[in-house]
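Protocol check, entry for the methods section draft. Step 1: assemble the input record (protein sequence plus ligand SMILES). Step 2: submit for complex structure prediction. Step 3: store the structure tokens unaltered in the notebook. Ligand used here: flavin-adenine dinucleotide. Step 1 record:
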Amino acid sequence: MDTTDVYDYVITGAGTAGCVLAARLTEDPQVTVLLLEAGRGDRHPFIHVPAGFAKLTGSKYDWGHTSVPQKHCHDRIIPLAQGKVLGGGGSINAQVFTRGAHEDYDEWAAKFGCDGWSYEEIKKYFLRAECNERLSAPHHGTDGPIGVSDLVNPHPLSKAWVQAGQEYGLPYNSDFNGDSQFGVGYYQTTTKNGRRCSAAVGYLGPARGRPNLTIKTRVTAARIVLDGTRATGVEYLEGGIRKIAKTTREVLVTSGAYGSPKLLQLSGIGNGNDLTAAGVPVRHELAGVGRNLHDHCDLDIIYELREYQSMDRLNQIRPGTAKAGLEYLAFRKGPLASTIVEGGAFSFGKAKESIPDLQFHFLPAAGVEQGIAAMRPGYGATLNSYFVRPQSRGSVRLASADPTVHPLVDPNFLATDFDVEASIEGVKQSREIMSQPSMAKHIKAEHLAGGKALRTKDDYVDFVRSHGRTSYHPVGTCAMGTDRNAVVGPDLKVHGLEGLRVADSSVMPRLVSSNTQFPTIMIAEKAADMITGG
Ligand SMILES: Cc1cc2nc3c(=O)[nH]c(=O)nc-3n(C[C@H](O)[C@H](O)[C@H](O)COP(=O)(O)OP(=O)(O)OC[C@H]3O[C@@H](n4cnc5c(N)ncnc54)[C@H](O)[C@@H]3O)c2cc1C
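Step 3, stored output:
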């Protein structure tokens, strides 16, 4: 064991939340911070060119997690991409800017005992983070570290899709983060001047030169060091050597919804049975660690196109590819400036609630993400849907006491009949939107993965169980709240311990009704305020 450096705060994971916290805490020059990240730096151009998203799932910047066989999905093992790079998920994600429904946060406060987290109370953190190029008060910020932009030049197919959504009956919505998510339109994106704006870019970028901030990449946090009930440091692996960083104030766990419960469990903090099964001595029994995992279960349909060349051509070497590269380099415009996930919608499905329960993403391309079929020969487009408030709950458990071994991740997709019905409704609405005149004229054929026609209820049930996949929004595994399954309190301190907080997507007690990056940024912003007494 090598020795020991001392910092005021050690942060375990330089993903979305970790970068926000490191930047905010080191604004005070008296405070020292060590930021530990298992992945590499974020210099690769595919990370920064918005369309580079198509190259990142399944790459060396992805942890390569897979699920355990999914009991309710024909025992399939499903890839679960998560960012392993400075910026975490924010460096490999689709850059869709959504914040969820106001009611999501009101529910955290009212139902889960998360005092201080109602929408009116957390809204200022959303606004503080945001630098929106078009929208402003009351719903948007214009001075924050994260750039939010309109699509530079929506693809003609995306325009047709947004019109098809209106023909289907959805109102046009020019701001999914305003009064209501309901409707169809174009997603705004977390980009600035035609480049990805992750928390590593927007927050950490300006902080990187500070003498009070030490950043280490390619190091693995292996264990939280406990002295009785107080966290006093972090043991980590650097080049195969175990080292310890001590803290004078707090350890801040920001390793994501799979990594944060894993780190607590490696430290002996968690469900006693789970720890014993993995050979880890129990230091602090906390039943909810690694439980309550939930994620949006995504269903994709691919469409073969008639005349249009969709963005698939960027994956094929042609003269047009070089032209796109030059256009991007010269003007930050053209197809490479697109985040590809361009069209969006929120609609009402099965749930009898006052807010939408289905979300859609339209991509004028096929084969963009790992595991999604490409269209060859020919060109394709993709429409995916998911039910935004799933009932199914899974878990993250240690496979081994070795910190370098991936945990057992069980999203337990489609474990309830309700989730199955709601997912089917999303697929049905997808097909109806695509059959509207503005879109139908571009479609040569619908390609359902597996190739079976969808006619009967059984066909649909089989389709969603055969093809449901992650939408990359795992949360809930270190849930905030006050009941016996809660892991952290509303102050994000781990129940029963001192000097230890979790402050990332894992603390969401219930998944928000949208993508999860900005909600995670909000959590980290509020955490920084609570830590500094701001
Ligand atoms: C492919 C993909 C597409 C997505 N698309 C969107 C989108 O379009 N819009 C949106 O809003 N959200 C999207 N998301 C979700 C969003 O990116 C995440 O919700 C968000 O990044 C979660 O932030 P986090 O800080 O909780 O975790 P992460 O950002 O995952 O950060 C955790 C960090 O901790 C590091 N880490 C883990 N374990 C250790 C360890 N033991 N030691 C050291 N470091 C460790 C990881 O490498 C990672 O960098 C997407 C995510 C993915 C993966």
